[in-house]
Amino acid sequence: MNPQGATVTGFKKPSAFDLEHDFLWRIHPHAPALGTVGIFNRSYYEDVLVRVHKLVPKEVWSERYELINGFEKLLWQQNNTHVIKFFLHISKGEQLARFKQRLDDPARNWKISEDDYKERELWDDYTQALEEMFAETSTKHAPWYIIPSNHKWFRNLAVSQIVAATMEDLGMQMPKPQVDLKMIRTEYHQAAAEESRHQHKRA
What's the CA angle centered on 144, arms 174 and 88, to 5 degrees? Predict the structure, then answer.
């Protein structure tokens, strides 16, 4: 496929304006249109994981599972959007090794965050939250794939194969031409014959 047919949207911390709306309000405008591919870098699932920091009460984050399932079902039923979700899992040891790379390599210093080690202390809490999230929101029309990602080459291979298989399952066909092919073939052959005559004259 041509990558020009894909758009990438990164979601960061909600702004004050975002927080005045429902948690899916800022997501929907970025859902891919018919015939396009949309890639979300982080997503509305962050609004479930806020449970780890107790930013919202349980009655708020727990009902978001159902709302997310409904949102993804809406995209699928109303716009034939196929949602595939990847969680790129690395081990705790690999995470620490990557932190070291960020410290040692000046080209990676920009990746360092003051929150890295604070979040690492909550590893078990995140693990519990993620396991529940996968169980509640992996559906037939919007499945989760947990990708072992300690080795980037395997991560890339696994994700690309799943994406390719999903697209093949769609059974897509090339669009029918919107022009008169018979007429254009006639014009082509006339132009080719004329070009051939010119070449013979120049020879």
Answer: 100
